[in-house]
Design goal:
Layout: E1 4-6, E2 11-13, H1 14-22, H2 33-46, H3 53-74, H4 83-86, H5 90-121
Antiparallel strand pairs: 1-2
C-alpha cells in the first residue's frame, strides 16, 4: 500500500507509522487518528474508479490495529484502578442488566401470546350441541 499520511507528529506511509508505534519508537497517544482517516477518505474519493479492494482492506486492518492500540493506552488497566473505584459502576450495571432481563421476559411472553392468538384464530367454536337424532342411545354400561 502506498498511502502516505501527514499528521503533526508523523509524515510517511501508514505501514511505517504502524511499525514505529509497534516498536515503541513513536507514542500512539501523540498520533491523532482522525486526520489520518480523513486523509484516507479524501484519497479514496479521489480515486473511486481505480479503488483496489486489497488496498481498502489493508487500510481497514491497519486502522483497526491503531485504534485498538490507542484505546488500550487510553483506558486504564485493571492494576491501576483502586478497589473502591472498581465497584462504583456495578450498581448501575446491575440495574441495567435487571431491566434487560425483564424486557427479554416480556418479549418472550408476548411471543407466546402471539402464538396462542394465532392458534386460536385458526380454530372455530362449536355453535350447536350434539345432534341427538342420529346418535345412538347412550346408556351407562353395567359391568
Amino acid at each position: 500500500m502506498t498511502f502516505v499520511v501527514t499528521t503533526p507528529s508523523f509524515s510517511g506511509p501508514v505501514e511505517t507509522l504502524l511499525q514505529l508505534i509497534s516498536s515503541h519508537e513513536l507514542e500512539i497517544l501523540d498520533v491523532a487518528l482522525a486526520p489520518l482517516v480523513h486523509q484516507y477518505v479524501e484519497h479514496i474519493a479521489a480515486i473511486t474508479d481505480t479503488t483496489d479492494v486489497e488496498e481498502l482492506s489493508e487500510f481497514l486492518l491497519i486502522g483497526s490495529i491503531l485504534v485498538e492500540m490507542k484505546s488500550h493506552r487510553l483506558l486504564p488497566g485493571r492494576d491501576s484502578a483502586e478497589p473502591d473505584e472498581e465497584f462504583v459502576g456495578w450498581e448501575e450495571r446491575d440495574v441495567l442488566l435487571a431491566r434487560l432481563l425483564e424486557l427479554r421476559t416480556y418479549a418472550a411472553v408476548s411471543d407466546a401470546l402471539v402464538t396462542l392468538f394465532e392458534r386460536a384464530s385458526r380454530s372455530f367454536p362449536r355453535l350447536r350441541g350434539i345432534d341427538r337424532s342420529n346418535a345412538t342411545t347412550l346408556s351407562p354400561r353395567k359391568y
